[in-house]
């Protein structure tokens, strides 16, 4: 299927709307572009990026997620080209350091490719190719051997890629939690904890009759218990440290 910026924007809109059905990102945080596109994304304003007209047309029509730095996958945040620090940086007229908008070790990104997410070291940099109509899932810490291109990472059609991520949530391989605003991944948590999380979702009707608010409350209660347990553990360690210190001081005094 040939690339279309409108179909790509619609695919992301569908994916973000799905994410808003989870007990995590509120629907009110989704920003949908006007029919004519985001007025702040102009050719002149974004000239420092050195991107093609097709890239800018895509950025103008993409939806974005407002406010909190929401993760849409593990340690993976949407780059908000319509406002926020990118827009402010460009408007200030400072020399644009593109390093902050691309993964490490990626100096070969062509003008028709644009990162749509920021993944730091461990998350996903979704590299959108506006000629091929594909997304490359680039993870810095799993980067190819030196001298190889970021293209060595998984690269598939845009809609197929987003559908694959949606499936990970549906199958509870990935789950939105309230732990530091992150996404729980199979393999990233102990199996017992994953079983508890999956149980919460399924008890709330996941996936066909999901009760979002009920799940949110249960996840919040779980988070509060987790925080309380960590505080109790920290307090116990501190008291034990003080006890040992006092015992040691008493022993030295007696000798």
Describe the fold and architecture.
- With 255 residues, the protein is an alpha+beta fold.
- Helix content is 40%, strand content 13%.
- It contains six helices and eleven strands.
- It has helices at residues 5-20, 53-61, 85-91, 158-170, 191-203, 212-254, and strands at residues 30-31, 64-65, 71-73, 76-78, 113-115, 117-118, 125-129, 134-138, 155-157, 174-176, 183-185.
- The protein has a four-stranded antiparallel sheet with strand order 5-7-8-9.
- Strand 7 (125-129) and strand 8 form a beta hairpin.
- Residues 227-236 have low confidence and may be disordered.
Can you give me a brief rundown of this structure?
The protein is of the alpha+beta class and 255 residues long. It is built from six helices and eleven strands.
What would you report as the Rg, rounded to the nearest angstrom?
A: 23 Å
Task: Report strand order across the widest sheet.
Answer: 5-7-8-9
Strand tally is 11
Residues in helices, as a percent range: 25-40%
Termini separation: 84 Å
For the sheet with most strands, the description reads: 4 strands, antiparallel
Question: In terms of per-residue confidence, which ranges show pLDDT below 50 for 5 or more consecutive residues?
Answer: 227-236
Q: From the helix content, strand content and strand pairing, which structural class follows?
A: alpha+beta
Helix count, per DSSP? 6
- Beta-strand portion reads 5-15%
Give, in order, the helices and strands.
HEHEEEHEEEEEHEEHH
Question: Outline, from the CA principal axes?
Answer: globular
Give the averaged pLDDT, no decimals.
84
């Amino acid at each position: 299927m040939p690339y279309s910026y409108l179909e790509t924007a619609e695919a992301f809109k569908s994916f973000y709307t799905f994410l808003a059905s989870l007990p995590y990102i509120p629907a009110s945080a989704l920003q949908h572009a006007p029919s004519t596109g985001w007025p702040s994304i102009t050719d002149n304003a974004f000239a420092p990026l050195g991107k093609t007209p097709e890239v800018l047309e895509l950025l103008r029509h993409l939806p974005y997620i407002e406010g909190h730095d929401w993760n849409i996958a593990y340690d993976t945040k949407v780059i908000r080209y319509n406002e926020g620090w990118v827009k402010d940086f460009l408007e200030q007229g400072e020399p644009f350091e593109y390093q902050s908008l691309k993964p490490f070790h990626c100096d070969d990104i062509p003008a028709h490719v644009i990162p749509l997410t920021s993944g730091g070291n461990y998350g996903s940099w979704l590299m959108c190719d506006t000629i091929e109509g594909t997304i490359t899932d680039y993870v810095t810490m799993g980067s190819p051997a030196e001298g190889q291109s970021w293209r060595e990472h998984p690269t598939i059609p845009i809609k197929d890629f987003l559908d694959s991520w949606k499936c990970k949530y549906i199958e509870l391989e990935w789950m939105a939690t309230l732990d530091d605003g992150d996404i729980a991944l199979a393999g990233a948590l102990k199996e017992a904890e994953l079983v508890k999380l999956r149980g919460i979702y399924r008890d709330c009707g996941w996936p066909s009759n999901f009760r979002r608010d009920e799940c949110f409350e249960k996840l919040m209660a779980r988070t509060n218990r987790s925080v309380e347990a960590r505080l109790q553990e920290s307090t116990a360690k501190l008291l034990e440290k003080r006890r040992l210190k006092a015992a040691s001081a008493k022993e030295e005094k007696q000798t």
